[in-house]
Write a structure and sequence with these properties.
This protein is α+β, with helices and mostly antiparallel strands and 75 residues long. The protein has a single domain, classed as Alpha-Beta Plaits, CATH 3.30.70.100.
């Protein structure tokens, strides 16, 4: 297993339905951890790179209703 982390800036607010959809994706697809910084509007996703690629993580977030904007460079 290869763990990677990606971060995105997002717009809007997240509802309970969005959070449930993200939780469901986490259980199925190999997403290990999702954290939100609501102040800076950043979502960080730790995932298993042997099962997922970064564009698929972005698609899962969009499918859960998260309006992701920019991919951030992690230091």
């Amino acid at each position: 297993m290869t763990q990677l982390e990606v971060a995105y800036r997002y717009a809007g607010t997240l509802s309970e339905a969005n959070m449930r959809a993200i939780d469901a994706a986490r259980e199925v697809y190999g997403i290990r951890r999702v954290s939100f910084d609501s102040k800076d509007r950043i979502v960080r996703v730790e995932f298993d790179a042997s099962r997922l690629k970064e564009p698929m993580v972005a698609a899962l977030l969009r499918g859960a209703g998260v309006d992701i904007r920019d991919k951030l460079v992690l230091a």
